[in-house]
Amino acid sequence: MRRALAAEGYAAVTIEGLAQEAEVAKQTIYRWWPSKAAILGEALLEGEIPGMDVSVAITDDLEADLRAWLTTMYAHQADAASTELARALIVVTATDADLGLRLNARLAAPIREWVGHRLALAEEAGQLRPGVDAAVVADQLVALASYAALLGTPVSAERVEATVQMLLHGIAA
Amino acid sequence: MRRALAAEGYAAVTIEGLAQEAEVAKQTIYRWWPSKAAILGEALLEGEIPGMDVSVAITDDLEADLRAWLTTMYAHQADAASTELARALIVVTATDADLGLRLNARLAAPIREWVGHRLALAEEAGQLRPGVDAAVVADQLVALASYAALLGTPVSAERVEATVQMLLHGIAA
User: What is the pTM of this model?
Assistant: First the structure.
């Protein structure tokens, strides 16, 4: 299912095709899943379709780590197969709210963990503005990743840099 | 089409239903549009389906204006009909990349304009960090709006406040 989604995209994957690939009748699939969104959503949830994880080493440089995270995430989105998977995920989420929340919880979890670790280090080093909530920062990164996947347009190094500076220093003088 | 989308959501709207409503044969619809995403996308583009615009008055208080924008946007997303429209928009964008880019350009335009005006005022008043790019700030807001529409979960006043503070002051000490 991962191969079909990555190669053809969500719109081109059909229940017929999935039934053929699994060598079962179409009705068998409909007995267990009410829709294409549901069957693909379950597959994404069960980890048959990995590869959305952005894993970046944590160093002692907060700015460099944020830059590395965004750069890696945007490079990942620029890969055609990843884009199709991410877009399929977005279609499932927009189509089935309950599945969407479970998928989001699963996919956002490693980002939340990474941000949590990174900001705890920064706080220990006295580099964090008091009151900064790691969950808010993580959601900002997830929102950027989701929007990049949705649009599928490349993001320049200059744009990454401007985003890093905005995350670090905000817009106020 | 707006009524059907808002009331039933993207998944429940069918080409059959649209043909019936327009009193034409299904084939007539397929002659002009290759898919449901395409027909709904065109309707969204042609403005048959408005109501996604967040219009907030600009005052002389940058922080209050950002808070008002986010509060209005999240309140808008909490409305069930708006959520269905926004989700339909996301499905169309994730399904048809070209339509998606045109829809995004159209829907992001008023946000970019608002942010452009607001930040120009802040810059005149010496309230802006040098080098802040209004386009980056606008895209951050669009990403937050898109992610909120995708998830459809309510956002608390505390979360709005934390987001305003992060946008204004960043995370660095």
Answer: 0.86
